[in-house]
Amino acid sequence: MLADLKKKVFFFLFFLVSTWKIATAAEGNAEVTYDGRSLIINGTRRLLFSGSIHYPRSTPQMWPSLIAKAKEGGLDVIQTCVFWNYNFSGRFDLVSFIKEVQSQGLYVSLRIGPFIQAEWSYGGLPFWLHDVPDIVFRSDNEPFKFRMRKYVTKIVDLMKSERLFASQGGPIIISQIENEYKTVEAAFHEKGPLYVNWTASMAVGLQTGVPWMMCKQDDAPDPINACNGLNCGLTFAGPNSPKKPAIWTENWTFKYQVYGKNPRPRSAQDIAFAVALFIAKKNGSFVNYYMYHGGTNFGKSASSYVTTAYYDQAPLDEYGLIWKPTWGHLRDLHAVIKQSEDALLWGVYSNSSLGQQQEVSAQTGERSATPIQYLSQDQQWQAFADEVISQNKSSFTAKELKEQMSLIKDATDYLWYTISYNHSQHDGPQTLHVSSRAHVLHVFINGKLVGTVHGDHDGALPNFEQPIEFREGWNDISLLSVMVGLPDSGPYLERRVAGLRRVRIQGSGGSLRDLRNWVWHYKVGLTGESMLIFSEQGSETAEWKSLQGYTNKPLMWYKTRFDAPKGDDPVVLNLENMGKGEVWINGESIGRYWASFKAPSGDPTQSLYHIPRSFLKPSANLLVLFEELGGDPRSIGVETMSIFRVCGHVSELHYPSVLSKNKDPYALLQCPQGRNISMIEFASYGTPLGECLAYPNIGNCHAPESEAIIKKACLGKQECTILVTDEMFGGDPCVGTRKSLLVFGRCS
Fold first, then answer.
1. Whether residue 341 lies in the annotated active site
2. Is the pTM of this model over 0.70?
3. H/E run at residue 398
4. Residue 142 annotated to the active site
5. DSSP string of 406-425, one letter each residue
């Protein structure tokens, strides 16, 4: 039944025909309103495709290319969240990002929040809010509302001062307040609905001249209630007023990845079908892809257990490369739907099936990393051992186990808990029990590591239980509690706790000593962090040692230098054989890594870590990493990423793209800019076996000149088009049989 629904919906959209229009963000002041069918810009209903690109997850140098590729992919709008816990200068220059979007003729959808979730540390809220007396986040709570109003007003005033709202001639056509509040509203009881109404009234009262929306908020008053999810064509109850349009703020193109899990990709066909279904069943007129470019969680910006790479298989991958076939498939879908924009926004909906043999096609590409420099020589590296903190090196004491996040304040992942324990051999064997609500726990006894435990994204906690051979007399117990990002969601976020909750020592007879209320000694962060050892100046103050004898040990800092690879291909660091830690390039953190936390497949969840070209100098780049668990830096390599293979698989029954002048089906092979088709690895017109991304073979029917014809048409070119017709290949190789062309080309 679902398969039939897919066919009917798709072909209903595919064969609606009207005038093809290309519309971009208009210059001059624009009036943006809405009715029950769509947003209305300057009196015209608009069917809009949007894509999320978060400015802090890329770099200003990447923005122009990302936006240009999004526009080429058929988008009308770029959507971004606003990140309260970052400033708005340098790499976080929101105004410059929006102006770049405007300069390329696209609109902006601005999700102000202030709570954004977005797998971002603390859901985008600054941690200092946690310390405001009597505050309750996202509730009818005066301390929170006062600061939320101040922040939202600041963002709106900033946009107004730069004339960025459409009503001022800018590109912002819609803004969002709050995010998915309905999922937590019930937890706040009567204060939840009061907060919703206050939030909506506060936002609308700022008079931006453009509409507001609230996603997953079916009781949204004035703002448009929008949908988030995998398939809003099935799950969205619809607008809560006949005067509001159906808007989809998050069509998930991939499932964000967490350490210890396999990737959870989503096919281009499934994404495209979901779009068609939303338009056909829900009268949808605004679809935003979350994410269109995911980018990189630099520094400590990722929330709990979330990988540094974010939505890597979005239409534009982490590095900004076009991810095929998703990008091309959606581009063609946008073109088909845009052909029928007037009919869809003004007509009466109906659908009919045109059979089960209709297909569309988009080129597939394969990405690979090319090793450029192996950092495998001893003399290339230096080492610095961080301190195992005992109580005589602590910063402060407390007669309790302190909550971790309130101490580290999102400035570090690390908190030392230390205590001295007097042991007598007459006590017999002892077992140490530690209960933790952090993410990782390292246990040191008298300066030596005796065990490490970690939790996971599913809720497992790093609780430790192990027999310990204490020495006679006083023993130092040093417990390093580690966060892998702050939480980003859930009600009462300000009440969440982390760190050690209970420490006990169990004797051989079963007796328990509870150390929870003993005098504990604390130190926030690592010694290397306090030295800024990852910076040029800080690294010069450290007493670095030669590498020999300092590999595969915990709490180690490693330093080397390397030259930037030539060319423009994205640069990555291969950390596949390291453990866990963080990496800095010329003082800029490229994020956390955790290669030792394997996915069920047996592979590291992430092994390649993006180094933006703007972080690099031509030569002598400073690379510093902190290895928490133990690894050998000589296994690290500098590599570049590129699309190395392209593939087309097109049936003679395929309809050509509406973007093409060809009336016959065709295969398009296209290498990235600066690369040409250097080899045809496989070509067969007939009944080839296999698919793109699968090993191909010649089938029972094959035109013998297939490879020669493709080589003549494609070799040495950046792109080529091959008609999928009998005439192209010298006649029909098997009369009466449905034929297709399968071709693999290599780019170099």
1. no
2. yes
3. strand 396-398
4. no
5. HHHTTS-SEEEEEEEEEE-G
